[in-house]
Amino acid sequence: MLKHTETVDCDVLVIGAGLAGMRAALETCGRYRTAILSKVHPLRSHSDAAQGGIAASLGNVEEDSVEKHLYDTVKGSDFLGDQDAQETLVSDAATAVYELEHFGAPFSRTDSGRIGQRDFGGHSAKRACYVADLTGHALLHSLYEQVLKHRIPTYGEHFVVALCGDRNRVTGAVAYDMAHGVLRAFSARAVVLATGGYARCFQLTSNDLHNTGDGLSLAWQLGIPLEDMEFVQFHPTGLYRQGILVSEAARGEGGYLLNRDGARFMERYAPKVMELAPRDVVSRSIQTEIDEGRGVDGRDFVNLDIRHLGKQLILERLPQIHDLALNFVGVDCLKEPIPIQPVAHYSMGGIPTDGDTRVLADGLKPTPGFFAAGECACVSVHGANRLGCNSLLEAVVFGRRAGKATTSYLDAEKPTEVKLTASDLAPALENLDKFCCSAGPDKAPEIRQELGAVMTKNCGVFRDDCGLSQGLAKVRELKTRFKNIVIRDRSPLYNTELTEALQLRNMLQYAEVIVASALNRTESRGSHSRKDHPKRDDVNWLKHTLTFPDGAGLRFDYKPVRITRFQPVERKY
User: Fold this and answer.
1) Are 449 and 518 found together in one domain?
2) Distances in Å between the alpha carbon of 359 and those of 300, 372, 535?
3) Of 186, 155, 180, 205, residue with least CA distance to 46
4) What pLDDT is recorded for position 123?
């Protein structure tokens, strides 16, 4: 159905146009021919949805320091993060923020003109640099302006269906150009994956529709393992039944969480920091209130109350929250509390990389010329749980490092340019044609709906052996049914039925890994909470999970957590 029309040659191919991808491209474009691929327009990348801020110790707050930011991040990760990578994250934070400021990011300001900073969950000082509650949106636009300034070729609405090469060397990609209805190949001497997260496989999620983990699937198809996939963060405050994010900035500014009795229940779970506990703690607390019958009006939500903050502060610092609550649940947060519930939000696991963002083919050995950064990657700065505002920071810091590492690789290794031939493209074309000609009884939207339901029910905030076992069996059943889906649309132009089916294929691949990894880890740590194994087990489980494709099944292996400065202790707030 789809025909190959041309091959675009470049030195560096960046797949993904969010903060990590654009920042990597800006680092390489001065020396090497760089191109960006994205299945949506860059300004629709999911980085746009981040609201609360980007964390950095700028020296503006007397009680803060890089050392404190590091410890907060280590503790927040439930001591599963690799501390050398975490130290890189926090040490580069101020540089990253000031660089964004120089790119034109319109940060909110203090009365003295400094970058504004607010409290955020799990952070021991005010270090969340913010642009009202539109931080991701502002940073994304600022970086895109730089991409335009440097005239970096950007191919929007290009869905990457396969990488070319193998786990020893990636030589490019094949993408479906939706606007023109053709396949376009991209040859490259180095490839950077920056495709974002994968929480869209859950029914209730803050992620947008295209956060379907495509980069993980691309790496998986080359035989590259996935790391720590059991750790999926649930954001405590999604709009009830909508999943739309209500930023942690609301609690950072002083919002309260209230149960059906109007009580601030966080005093029972995190008495020292209350609503400013890390997200995994707050999510479990909310879910416990709901499960024990203390949801508002006996239903599965609690209230987030910000009325006491006053109209001026809300409209100045939290305007998007006000609009979202009004438009999607009909609540004016100036006058009444917002109904919220935990929703799947962020992916701590992903494609294993080292501190220079090089993809690790076996979890340990780098693949030459293959890099990954941002939420699709697992350099393990977040371990078992991410602190708020460290995600935008990771995207910018490690996007920049990916660009520098790619440049260094090309400078030092001088890899020869590989011209893609018909034989290189044949597997992708054959697989896609076979996929397009499928005419079975099942439909992709129905399978996708069932997948979301089982992931939310069986692999949610709380987990146990029975639920996970049932969930794994169901996901595998859906994978089998997926082989018999029907695609009726034969049009080459904007074939959304085809792209949605391709996204579902990707989601089914890594959803199995999430559930199997969660079933395999018999402890509770960070976002992974097992009712049947409620304690953290450092003796047996202070290690990273590596899940490998193994024929029709999965194989687990492990690698140690890199502990440099802070030994694990009990995590209390």
Assistant:
1) yes
2) 41, 6, 32
3) 205
4) 94
Q: Is residue 225 part of a domain?
A: yes
33 catalytic? Reply is: no
Strand 256-258 to 351-352 pairing: unpaired
Max intra-chain CA distance, the chain: 68
Q: Cα separation of 475 and 226, whole Å?
A: 18
pLDDT digits (tens, 9 = 90+) for 393-424: 999 999 999 999 999 999 999 998 888 877 77
Same-domain check for residues 370 and 359: yes
Is 564 contained in some domain? no
**DSSP run (H or E) holding 514:** helix 496-520
Please give the span between the terminal C-alpha atoms of the chain, in angstroms, as a whole number. Answer: 57
Determine the Cα–Cα distance for residues 522 and 290; give it in Å rounded to an integer.
Answer: 25
Residues of the chain with pLDDT under 70: 1
The H-or-E segment that residue 187 falls in is strand 182-187
The three-state (H, E, C) secondary structure of 456-489, written as one string: HHHCCCCECHHHHHHHHHHHHHHHHHHCCEECCC
Among residues 279, 400, 521, 530, the one annotated as catalytic is 279
The full length of the chain comes to: 573
pLDDT score of 481? 94
Same domain, 291 and 144: no
- Whether residue 209 is contained in a domain is answered as yes
What is the reported pTM?
0.95
Express as a percent the part of the chain with pLDDT over 70. 100
What is the identity of the amino acid at 81? Answer: G
Range of 217's domain? 4-231+348-419
Cα angle 480, 485, 489 (rounded to 5 degrees) comes to 160
325 and 197 in one domain? no
